[in-house]
Amino acid sequence: MTKKKNQWIEWLKAILIAFGLVFFIRMFLFSPIVVDGPSMLPTLHDRDQMIVNKFIYKIKEPERFDIVVFHAPNQKDFIKRVIGLPGEHVKVKDEVLYINGKPVEEPFLEDLKRAKKEYQSITNDFTLEELPGGYEEIPEDHILVLGDNRGNSTDSRMIGVIPLDEVVGKASVIYWPPERMQIVRE
Question: Is 39 among the catalytic positions?
C-alpha cells in the first residue's frame, strides 16, 4: 500500500510541477493569441493563431515594423504593426509614409498596392498632429501603430499613440493553421 501511495505522490508532484511551468511560461514568457478580423491582411489572416513573445521588450525596445500585441483602451487586445517610435514625427501623404520628413518604404504593403484599383487608397493622408492627442512628435515611452489593411483597421489614427507599458509583446510566429505556419517578417 505504501509503494502505491508513494507512486501517487510522485505523479501528483510531477503534475503540479508541469502546471507550474506552464503557468510561468504563459504568464511571463510566451502566450498564444488569435488574430480577430481583417485589420492585418494580407500579412495576418483572420483566425491565424500566433505566439506572443512577452519578454522581448523587457530587454529591448520595439523596432519599426514589429508586429505587436497591446491592450487597447477599454477593449480587448489588438495586434498591429509599429510604424512610429518615440521622438519621431509621422505623416502619410499620397500613399507614402514619412518619418521625420523622410520617405520610408513599407514592403509589407506591396501586395495591397498592386491589387488596389486606381481610385482606391491604401492609407488616407494624415499627420501625427491630426491624431488623438495632437502631438508634434511621438512622446517618450509611446509608439504609433497601424494595421496593414489600413482601410479596415482601428489603430493609432483612431485611438492615438500607445504607451509602451500597454504592449504585451511581439507576435512573430504563426503556428495555426498548419498551411500558414511561418515566422512573420516585415
Answer: yes
